[in-house]
Specification:
Elements (H helix, E strand, L loop, with lengths): L3 H12 L8 H16 L13 H12 L5 E5 L2 H17 L8 E3 L9 H8 L17 H15 L14 H6 L20 H11 L2 E5 H9 L10 E4 L5 H9 L5 H11 L3 H13 L15 H25 L2 H10 L1
Parallel strand pairs: 1-3, 1-4, 2-3
Helix pairs in contact: 1-3, 2-3, 3-4, 5-6, 9-10, 11-12, 12-13
């Protein structure tokens, strides 16, 4: 049976063609991670450059529990590629956990949607495939055509495996976000869905590699995005506050207030948008607490805006219940 130190020594020896050895800081980190996994408690580690932290947390997490499922969340694609293409294959070859498996899981919009591809291939539903001039296909149209061919050949549907970078217009024609997807059971192409297949591969894996944005979506959803897992490792954790703030926070700007005011013909909201602009302008580039307790002027402006929104919402609901309005709608129908 491996200890953290013996496992790291075996990895180092394999990497350095038999002449390597585990580093003291790396061993200490792996042992700390292993204890945290066994005790089911959180752990924060700050490791300097050259510590070898990736192997340390992988070895610690895998030895800390024989059958744990580990999620590793990173901020950059480079580290995801390193984990999937170099570090985990080395750990597997060293026999740290027999039969070790891993998978990279990305957000739904990173995979081609088979149903979107079916729909865009229909001539009547594909204005972007229209000819540009005499017999010349538009650039976006040609990219979509190339994507449709690739969809028939690809095993993963992962955008990262393309040998060209499609334009946003072309890729959006053949992909969907989680808010647009009806789910595999409701989709005509659900049985062959690339994103669902990626999820199933991740669900069966010992180690699941994701980015911080997908982890943020998982937390924001209440735990419904990622497969069940026992251990969570957040690498490049210094990037987490910004990503998590984006996923879990609320973005409110004076411009959005003004836009809602125009859409709803709610003139009372216009002044509140201007007031919000005045108190937020000095705070550009900062992050506010959820209750804005640190700034009384912001808390007051948000409180006033909230009251006005409730008033406008009440007025709209009263209109919905107006018998005269209902009668006019029924006559119009």
């Amino acid at each position: 049976m491996h200890t953290e130190e013996s496992a790291l020594e075996r990895l180092a020896a394999a990497l350095d063609d038999g002449g390597g050895e585990a580093r003291a800081g790396q061993v200490a980190m792996a042992q700390a991670v292993g204890r945290a996994v066994r005790d089911e408690r959180p752990l924060v580690v700050r490791a300097g450059t050259g510590t070898g932290k990736t192997w340390a947390y992988l070895v610690g997490a895998l030895l800390g529990s024989d059958d744990s499922t580990v999620v590793v969340a990173t901020a950059t694609k480079a580290l995801q590629d390193q984990l999937a293409g170099k570090d985990l294959p080395a750990v597997a070859a060293a026999g740290i956990r027999p039969g070790l498996t891993w998978a990279v899981l990305k957000g739904r919009s990173n995979y081609l949607c088979r149903q979107a591809a079916v729909e865009v291939a229909r001539e009547d539903d594909a204005p972007s495939l229209a000819l540009e001039g005499a017999g010349r296909t538009s650039r976006v149209g040609q990219e979509i055509a190339d994507l449709l061919v690739w969809a028939q050949e690809s095993e993963s549907g992962d955008r990262a495996e393309l040998d060209f970078e499609p334009s946003p217009a072309a890729w959006s024609s053949v992909s969907v976000g989680s808010d647009q997807c009806p789910g595999a059971t409701e989709c005509p192409s659900g049985q062959t869905c690339f994103a669902e297949a990626a999820y199933e591969r991740a669900r069966e894996a010992d180690v699941i590699i994701v980015n911080l944005h997908l982890l943020g979506a998982h937390v924001a959803s209440g735990g419904y995005v990622l497969p069940d897992h026992d251990v969570l490792i957040v690498d490049e954790a210094h990037e987490a506050p910004d990503v998590m703030g984006s996923a879990l926070g609320v973005t409110l700007t004076p411009g959005r207030v003004a836009a809602v005011a125009r859409l709803a013909s709610a003139t009372g909201l216009v002044g509140h948008g201007a007031a919000l602009d005045r108190v937020l302008s000095p705070l550009v580039g900062t992050r506010l607490a959820a209750n804005s307790a640190g700034d009384a002027s912001v808390a007051e402006a948000l409180g006033d805006l909230s009251q006005e929104v409730r008033r406008q919402r009440g007025a709209l609901r009263a209109l919905e219940a107006d018998p005269a309005l209902k009668a006019r709608r029924e006559r119009a129908a």
